[in-house]
């Protein structure tokens, strides 16, 4: 991560971090200096429940600030999670390592130039306006608890940029693929992308992703971004076929390896 930190385009990292916060807004956002404390009761997303530092030079009082953040997480019944990006101060990472924290997931942020993407400007699928229907499908495809529906709907409804909710459904089998596209001026974020196990490797993922990217491009987006776990080989292969390339990586840390 430290070598990647040196190579990362920090202005691009800052821009993509900011747009990702708008695309996936936490219910509670507090600042301790330049450290952002993100919490969302009732939803397990790590991006909605983490501490992320936004200035490489802001490394004062690390232990004290982590302790303050831990109290906030305790109030939500959650373990403290730190999200390390190329903007994270090096002394903070060194402190986590020295204190025995565990890095439990690495994620790559990728981008693609939509203006150069070779896809026709026709839409195979139009975004749905039915948040409840989309949320039901998304939770089912990701194998998540249906009880998360109210809080996930609340997260989606709180997104301020333009949202496109894409669904492919089968009359008999139910939801086949779902994807949330958030268009924020000239940037488009891909989130909640899921394909049913029975329909993978049949071109369905490419179909819904291409539709979302065309939709965003027709609305003025010039670059698309997404975040995917480095161990998700199927998704990485799909994105590579469309021309997505790595912008930077980030990692999650916790005291006891819990997520």
Automatic annotation (TrEMBL):
GO terms for molecular function: acyltransferase activity. Pfam families: Rv0428c_C (PF24553). This is GNAT family N-acetyltransferase. Residues 121-258 form the N-acetyltransferase domain. Keywords: Acyltransferase, Transferase. InterPro entries: Acyl_CoA_acyltransferase, GNAT_dom, Rv0428c-like_C, YpeA/RimI_acetyltransf. Its EC number is 2.3.1.-.
């Amino acid at each position: 991560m430290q070598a990647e930190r040196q190579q990362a385009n920090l202005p691009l990292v800052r821009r993509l971090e900011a747009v990702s916060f708008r695309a996936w807004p936490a219910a509670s956002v507090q600042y301790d200096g330049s450290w952002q404390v993100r919490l969302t009761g009732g939803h397990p997303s790590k991006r909605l429940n983490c501490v992320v530092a936004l200035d490489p030079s802001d490394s004062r009082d690390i232990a004290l600030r982590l302790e303050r953040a831990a109290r906030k997480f305790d109030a939500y019944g959650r373990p403290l999670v730190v999200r390390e990006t190329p903007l994270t101060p090096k002394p903070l990472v060194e402190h986590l390592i020295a204190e025995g924290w565990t890095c439990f997931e690495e994620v790559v942020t990728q981008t693609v130039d939509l203006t150069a993407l070779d896809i026709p400007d026709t839409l195979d699928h139009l975004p749905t306006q039915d948040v409840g229907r989309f949320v039901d499908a998304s939770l089912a495809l990701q194998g998540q608890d249906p009880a998360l529906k109210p809080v996930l709907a609340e997260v989606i409804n709180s997104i301020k940029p333009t949202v496109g909710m894409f669904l492919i459904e089968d009359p008999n089998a139910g939801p086949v693929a779902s994807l949330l596209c958030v268009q924020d001026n000239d940037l488009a974020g891909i989130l909640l992308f899921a394909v049913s196990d029975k329909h993978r490797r049949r071109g369905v993922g490419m179909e819904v992703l291409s539709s979302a990217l065309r939709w965003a491009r027709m609305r003025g987006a010039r670059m698309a971004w997404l975040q995917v776990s480095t161990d998700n080989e199927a998704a990485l292969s799909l994105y590579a076929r469309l021309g997505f390339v790595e912008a930077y990586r980030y990692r999650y840390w916790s005291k006891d390896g819990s997520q």
